[in-house]
Design goal:
The protein has 303 residues and is an alpha+beta fold. The protein has 8 helices and 18 strands. It folds into 3 domains: 90 residues, Pseudouridine synthase (2-Layer Sandwich); 132 residues, Pseudouridine synthase, CATH 3.30.2350; 65 residues, Roll (Archaeosine Trna-guanine Transglycosylase, Chain: A, domain 4), CATH 2.30.130.
Length: 303
């Protein structure tokens, strides 16, 4: 399986780290070249997009996609990690109605500047925030712009509130839940999280690692394994062969290809264009445009 290059849409269980998933995928697929497009906290479950082989070169473009989550917030509790795995800092009685939880939750929409959780991997002066926290070192925790939309209220049982929403890349759901707790006046911490969308992929398309291993051992095709040429469905495509392909593989764009790209590239809409082989159908390169340089090769794919 080490010859596979593409994405694996993994259904991550709660209780394991994203690194655990990558390590197991390396063993299952027989390759060290495995990464992922967006960390999920150990507590979280759901869709995790793994990048295998040459697909690691696509990480920048996969990471750009929006995400969507379903969450549970436990009210009346505040923790240092902003989820139930952390140390309890404060408890408070929960004297709020279902209507209050619903209305305040649904009001937390749009773009907001929220404080990043101290237990996160963002680096400050070369050191990860969670290292500052574990070493009890003082650090100014940064704020980050996060955007939320398509909010849905799913219920409140007197202790836990459940919501769904879409959000921008790099969003910390724990920060949104912390804000919810502040607005309700009783505090809140994350008790469950499921990622059900990582643009353009849905949780329903994913596979557990156990099922992936079983399917591969049985020699069956796995729909959750997305080849390179289908990994970026929203990006325009052009197909080439012969001399154009030879030049491209050596990091050069032929005059003919450059002329064709001019006719199809829309700088207002397009970030990159995929160049595929007309004969094999495989992805050869990603081409973009830069001011004062024109068309440039962003990534060359080597199989």
């Amino acid at each position: 399986m080490s010859t596979f290059h593409g994405l694996v849409l993994v259904r991550k269980p709660s209780g394991v780290t994203s690194h655990d998933v990558v390590s197991r995928l390396r063993r299952i697929l027989g390759t060290k070249s495995v990464g992922h497009a967006g960390t999920l906290d150990p507590l979280a479950e759901g869709l995790m997009v793994a990048l295998v082989g040459e697909a690691t070169k696509l990480s920048q473009y996969i990471l750009e996609g929006d995400k969507a989550y379903q969450l549970k917030a436990r009210l009346g509790v505040e923790t240092d990690t902003l989820d139930i795995t952390g140390q309890t800092l404060k408890t408070a009685p929960v004297n709020v109605s279902l209507e209050q939880v619903r209305d305040i939750g649904l009001s937390l929409v749009g773009e907001m500047s929220l404080k990043v959780p101290i237990y996160s991997a963002i680096k400050i002066q070369g050191q990860k925030l969670y290292d500052y926290a574990r070493n009890e070192q003082a650090v100014e925790v940064p704020h980050k712009d996060m955007k939320f939309w398509n909010l849905e209220f799913l219920g409140f049982d007197g202790t836990e509130a459940e919501f769904r929403f879409h959000c921008s890349k790099g969003t910390y759901v724990r920060s949104w839940i912390d804000l919810l707790g502040q607005k309700l006046g009783c505090g809140a911490t994350m008790s469950a999280l499921t990622r059900f969308w990582s643009d353009p992929y849905a949780l329903e398309q994913s596979i557990t690692l156990e099922d992936l291993e079983a399917e591969l051992k049985a020699g069956r095709e796995v729909a959750a394994m997305v080849p390179m040429e289908r990994a970026l469905p929203a990006a325009k495509r052009v197909r080439i062969k012969g001399y154009d392909q030879t030049l491209l593989s050596n990091g050069q764009i032929s005059h003919e290809l450059r002329s064709f790209l001019i006719t199809m590239f829309d700088p207002q809409k397009d970030d990159i264009i995929q160049v595929l082989s007309l004969t094999s159908g495989k992805l050869l390169a990603l081409v973009g445009i830069e001011k004062d340089r024109g068309f440039v090769i962003k990534r060359v794919i080597k199989y």
